[in-house]
Amino acid sequence: IYQDICDNESSSNELPRYLVHRCSNGSSASSLSFCPYEDVLGVGHERGFISLLAPGAGEPNFDTLEANPYQTKKQRKHAEVKQLLDKIQPDMITLDNSILSEIDRKTFIRKQEEKRNNFNFIKPKELIIKSDKKKGKIGKRLARKTQIRDAKLKEYLQQQQLKRKKTKN
């Protein structure tokens, strides 16, 4: 690392060195990356990675026009949204609370009726598709389940018929 490279008008052989570091086992550096405001230089070489501290190499005064030079992508997005909301007039943001507290009764009643109608809907036996007969334990278990389901369905239908008769009387 050379010191004041832009200020000196001397030839490249006579530039004053600021920091010298030799990589282990004679490996050569392949990439460099400097962390601004932190005085850290990352050096990638054939055998790994080294972080070098170069005191005073970074700019000590960061840009004061920038609110937070260390901000992450998420923080930057939040700041942008906040700036956009600050530009909007407050009367455009307000909501009418009376509309929020009301219930759309027509839609509510319609949805309740649809639920009741769908609950009473029973598929005709022609539409029920039974799977192929199974053998062994699985077949017996499946047959038992279908018998139980059919018995419950019969009970339910009988109860519905009784209710309808009572309401008609």
From TrEMBL:
Keywords from the UniProt entry: Nucleus, Repeat, WD repeat
Pfam families on file: BING4CT
Principal subcellular localisation of the protein: nucleus
GO terms under cellular component: 90S preribosome; small-subunit processome
Domain BING4 C-terminal: 17-97
Entry's Gene Ontology BP terms: maturation of SSU-rRNA from tricistronic rRNA transcript (SSU-rRNA, 5.8S rRNA, LSU-rRNA)
Localisation: Nucleus, Nucleolus
InterPro entries cross-referenced by the UniProt entry: BING4_C_dom (IPR012952), WDR46/Utp7 (IPR040315)
Protein name: BING4 C-terminal domain-containing protein
